[in-house]
Amino acid sequence: MQRARDVNTAVMELLIMAYALKTACARNIIGVIPYFPYSKQSKMRKRGSIVCKLLASMLAKAGLTHIITMDLHQKEIQGFFSFPVDNLRASPFLLQYIQEEIPNYRNAVIVAKSPDAAKRAQSYAERLRLGLAVIHGEAQCTELDMDDGRHSPPMVRNATVHPGLELPLMMAKEKPPITVVGDVGGSIAIIVDDIIDDVESFVAAAEILKERGAYKIYVMATHGILSAEAPRLIEESSIDEVVVTNTVPHEVQKLQCPKIKTVDISLILSEAIRRIHNGESMAYLFRNITVDD
């Protein structure tokens, strides 16, 4: 599935194509979706919908019988489907890039941009025999910045509550100021994640790493969405290089920002297609892959 200018258009085209093949009595309909859209919306947030599960149901209803994708945002997404999903990994290609393209990579520290990304960063650090650091907290916002609807809906002043019912209130979370757990002084910092879309958090992480003594900063991820003003923000930031794979086309962004580099992962996708077509085992493509990868 190619990423169109509008992801919703691409999804509808895929659904219509799959349904046309289904009505034409195709025995198997395999979708190759390197970046699975809406993968970040895979958990229930307050009373919101789980859009990723809805999309999985739509693909099954349209007639797909198998999906090849890469680095799902949450591995549990595979459970949304009623048919096989091969979730390939881009980490071998990114690890190879680190070893071959980053000078003096032995003096690097793998950095997790948040505690949520710590397992991924730990996997990279263990394979490369490098140190690990984790960024915790968030940039402090002014009161004006907080007025963006994140606390909506507003509280109802005159809400009626049953006289005998007193529900305990959950204390609001308050993250500490952004800080680094681990030593990056005099080292190359390599931030790893699965998706780069809005880059403000990566830029803020790069600034704090510079303050802590990192002399070069790389950002590596599988999916380079790089929407809105991402190329300009990267170009003006302390980030030296952003390395992403070609699961999502980003030729325009590369023209706007020479710091963006691409790693080609077409080899593993083509091998997966070949193996499925010939009825061969897919286990070879998942060798040495662990739960945390």
Automatic annotation (TrEMBL):
InterPro entries attached to this UniProt entry: Pribosyltran_N, PRTase-like, Rib-P_diPkinase
Pfam families: Pribosyl_synth, Pribosyltran_N
An example Gene Ontology CC term for this record: ribose phosphate diphosphokinase complex
Membrane-spanning parts: 50-68
SUPFAM superfamilies xrefs: PRTase-like
A Gene Ontology molecular function term of the record: ATP binding
Entry keywords, A to Z: Membrane, Nucleotide biosynthesis, Transmembrane, Transmembrane helix
UniProt domain Ribose-phosphate pyrophosphokinase N-terminal: residue ranges: 5-63
BP-aspect Gene Ontology terms: 5-phosphoribose 1-diphosphate biosynthetic process; purine nucleotide biosynthetic process
Family indicated by similarity: Belongs to the ribose-phosphate pyrophosphokinase family.
Function: Seems to play a negative regulatory role in 5-phosphoribose 1-diphosphate synthesis.
Subunit structure: Binds to PRPS1 and PRPS2.
Protein name: Phosphoribosyl pyrophosphate synthetase associated protein 1
Organism: Rousettus aegyptiacus (Egyptian fruit bat)
